[in-house]
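Translate sequence into structure tokens.
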Amino acid sequence: MLALSVVGTLFVPAAAAAPGRPTGTASVPPIRWGACPSAEPPYPDPSPRAQCATVDVPVDWAEPDGPKTGIFVARYRATDPARRIGVLMSNPGGPGAAGADDALYADDPTEGYTPQMLRRFDIVGFDPRGIGRSRNAECDETIRAAIPARPRDAAEFERLRTLNGRLAESCLERTGPLAAHVDGESVARDMDAIRAALGERSISFIGHSYGTFLGERYARLFPDRVRALALDSAMDPDRPDAERYLTDGSVTIDNTLKRLAAWCATETACALHGRDLTAVTDTLFARADAGTLREPGPNGPTRTRVDADRLSDFLTFALGKGSREETARQLAALETGKGEVRWIPTGAQSFPRLVLCRDHDFRIRDYAHYRAIRERVAKAAPHVRYNAQSLDTVLGCQGWTLPPKPRPVRVPGSLPPVLVVNATHDLATPLPGARRMARSFPRASLYTMDVVGHWLYRRGGTEEAMRVIDSYLTSPNG
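Result follows.
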């Protein structure tokens, strides 16, 4: 099912944009394009039409004449120059994903853009600062391995905070000052430096997942330089605190379980067909709390206990990323003790903390505050208790010694209408955050698909969203 809601007025993007204000203007020379490096096996070499370059930007944008860092940029030039609209810049999210591949493989028949988009735009991708070919940030991963994934008492919570702080300091020691400047605002200013180096008055932008946050930051800082802004699987731009962030994600997973339960009630392909799936999970949690839930094996239950945290972790990723049939089969295995369950390791990775703990304020006062939040979230999402991915992010920021940055002030300017696209059941970027993203702009529309998933701009089951985004980006010059 598809739905389109409008915030402000429905639109087509402006055909051109006035030159932006000088605030944050990058002083960079024109890009000097060259051949792109060969890929390391097993990845294929980039498209022969792709070009590559490096744009030097300040490590700290508050000191534009200070030390520089290089941003790796790739371009796939429009195949129909006479009908070229302009530049389409992109970011695949993460944070931590290398974005230059979007241009290096722009014409890939499976993962690339449609021929229409390739004709009309120069596709420009970049590896954000600290990522990939833009100098990887490094941290001491041995510290991360020792951090408690789910603190069970005040002592473990304090140990988590202490080790998170040591991890942050190790990032600074191994990476240098750049580690303190990989936040969304800094990357948005890098994007404008790329625009300036390209000699473009304005850009169109498509961001996916965390890339939507970068798009919002760019529009906030450089509204007059935005031709069109498409945000796929949108983050909440309003700096939610730990409880709201965790609640939105957890309620999404709980609702996804109810969706699976409705499917199991009618479909014989469900391994628990005819059963109340929410009651099954409630019983599994009761057994986990009592210490009687065991990891299933091929011939029956094993001796390995499954606690409530491990069960919540399983439910998050099985419901959010697994197939309906496979998720129901694994739940049946947990109930009977016979079969196999795919356990996905939890724990926030190092680089995303460098970004998310600067862009958001997830700080929790102490263990008592943490337990109170967990209890309220569990009441809001009683059948799953919490979203493991959201909790990993929140816990990863406790004790982080690089403090959150303030949200930049919105620069006055003429921003075109914006398109936000989101799944109704998205464990990574829940729909409430996408709604807030749409409301954050003077004029925007929110397009939703009633599906379970993340990143709708792809071929296959969500291709309709891809067509909607392409139509928006190419109007009114189509």
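Note: Residues 6-24 have pLDDT under 50 and may be disordered.
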